[in-house]
Amino acid sequence: MRSVLIVEDQPEIRELIRITLEFDNYQIDEAGTGPEGLEKAAAMKPDLMLLDVMMPGGIDGVEVCKRVRANPALRKTKIIMLSAKSQSTDRAAGKSAGADEYLTKPFSPLELMEVIHRVLR
């Protein structure tokens, strides 16, 4: 079973993502801040992180992505950044931080699953 860590500060979005993923038999954990996401990622070494870009707590998604990429124990973890920021500069920042994919909000459950399947292939 593949593991997914959802790092998203909005509980209703985390719930929507969790419900979407439950149909596909993933082991799911959640974090509401960047620091909590880093802590949980180090502990669970997820196959995939779904990472919000804009979060409170002093560490945003771009910084979390950079730190995950700098951790040799997490080098196999795939990262999909989720953001309401849709400018090409935002996408470029996500990609240069090491994200495998960048999905803009709002997205449909179907879009999310397509991107997850593509990244985990």
Automatic annotation (TrEMBL):
<protein>
    <submittedName>
        <fullName>Response regulator</fullName>
    </submittedName>
</protein>
<keyword id="KW-0902">Two-component regulatory system</keyword>
<feature type="modified residue" description="4-aspartylphosphate">
    <location>
        <position position="52"/>
    </location>
</feature>
<keyword id="KW-0805">Transcription regulation</keyword>
<keyword id="KW-0804">Transcription</keyword>
<feature type="domain" description="Response regulatory">
    <location>
        <begin position="3"/>
        <end position="120"/>
    </location>
</feature>
<keyword id="KW-0238">DNA-binding</keyword>
<dbReference type="Pfam" id="PF00072">
    <property type="entry name" value="Response_reg"/>
</dbReference>
<keyword id="KW-0597">Phosphoprotein</keyword>
<dbReference type="InterPro" id="IPR001789">
    <property type="entry name" value="Sig_transdc_resp-reg_receiver"/>
</dbReference>
<dbReference type="InterPro" id="IPR050595">
    <property type="entry name" value="Bact_response_regulator"/>
</dbReference>
<dbReference type="GO" id="GO:0003677">
    <property type="term" value="F:DNA binding"/>
</dbReference>
<dbReference type="InterPro" id="IPR011006">
    <property type="entry name" value="CheY-like_superfamily"/>
</dbReference>
<dbReference type="GO" id="GO:0000160">
    <property type="term" value="P:phosphorelay signal transduction system"/>
</dbReference>
